[in-house]
Amino acid sequence: MGAAKLTRFLGKLTQVRLSERQREAQLRRIMLVETNVMLPIKFVAFVAAAYFYQNEMRGVLPTATAEQAAAIRAYMRQLNFYGIGNLIFWSLLLAARLGRMMPQLFRFSAFWLAMLDMLFLSGLIYFTGGLESVLFWLYIGLMVRNAVNFPVFWQQIVMNVGATVFYTLSVMLHEEQWGFFGEELYWLRVMVLVLVSLCCWGVYVLLQRERERARTRHELEVREQTAAASGRLAAELAHQLKNPLGIINNAAFVLQRQTATSAAIREPVEVIRQEVSRCDRILTQLLDYARLSEGRVEPVEFNSVLERALKQALAATPGRWEVRRRYAAGLPVLWAHRTQIEESFLNVIQNALEAMPGGGTLTLETRYAGDGQVEVRIADTGVGMSATEQERIFEAFYTTKPKGSGLGLAIVKNIVETYGGRIAVRSEPGKGTEFTLVFPTQITKETETL
Length: 450
Prior knowledge:
The chain is an alpha+beta fold and 450 residues long. The chain folds into 3 domains: 181 residues; 83 residues, Helix Hairpins, CATH 1.10.287; 154 residues, Histidine kinase-like ATPase, C-terminal domain (Heat Shock Protein 90), CATH 3.30.565. It is built from 12 helices and 7 strands. Strand 4 and strand 5 form a beta hairpin. It is elongated, with a radius of gyration of 34 Å.
């Protein structure tokens, strides 16, 4: 058990790919950090760099040596290059805000802008003293920013190694010799970069784990309270009605025996007993729904639960069907009562199979729908439904089956909505039906900042 936990921890520590939810959170962090923190800082830095050129370099340019003039021109080229790079990035950032740019391109641009910032800082270090430059300490701020925006292992390695390489090159160009490798100050500063990098990386991973634990606890509490309240209401309603129905049924049975010779009385009494029996089946179904709320809330994997429901439906409804599975990998889990989710899938799949009495194709599909939501699609090639039937299909007690209670899909809808989801149907007579169930895997939208 300890080895498994260590393996999972190391996997998170050295993750090379973010989940969909993590990528969404990363975009929000980049937008927040770059807009509210880095933009004002860069504006001040750019103005200061331009002021330094105007007052310290431009005046000496006419009398400068060829070497000094080349250095000044290099400084201006660096300043222009940095300004153009930032202009391109902020154009992409504006496009992202307007929803007109691919998230992958946005992350790519942010990554290379971070590298550009470190390269620009290295150029400033070259012009302000090399090994002795106090601007070295700005690397720490850039590393903190990079750890917040880019938690992926390989990105962290590239950026942190890049910072060390850029700093070494700036010192090398300024000193114009290799002797600085023997300087204690150089190695102390390199060690500072390494330690800051490790600390930022480790703190981010620990905060991420704590955030996941807190979110899990919150999800567990909310899901348990919601499911338990819904189950208690159904159980209380069923228990309160079952006893009077039993009394009515017994009284009707006695009356039927006493009036066995009178057809005029016997037939209405038989109708009463049939309707009482139908009500009893409905209440039994409500009790079954209440029992679904028993147990504990646990992480539910959509693909495995959907597959289990399929096997149960195929075993209970024999026939000749072609099953097509399109399961997405890496889906987030849903904190819920497993039996409730399984029963929902089972009910919809059974309806799909019953709609294809002569055989057909059943399609099961799962996919990540963005914003922490998972979409489950169950489609058949059966008889289909009319527009009127589609409008009433989720109404309680509405059924097109002779012995149906009309509660099956109503309960499914209630279960899905209990977990904050939604269910929709699309059908065409003679061409089949498609149910789409969407589940949010988190109660509230996650807002990560670090």
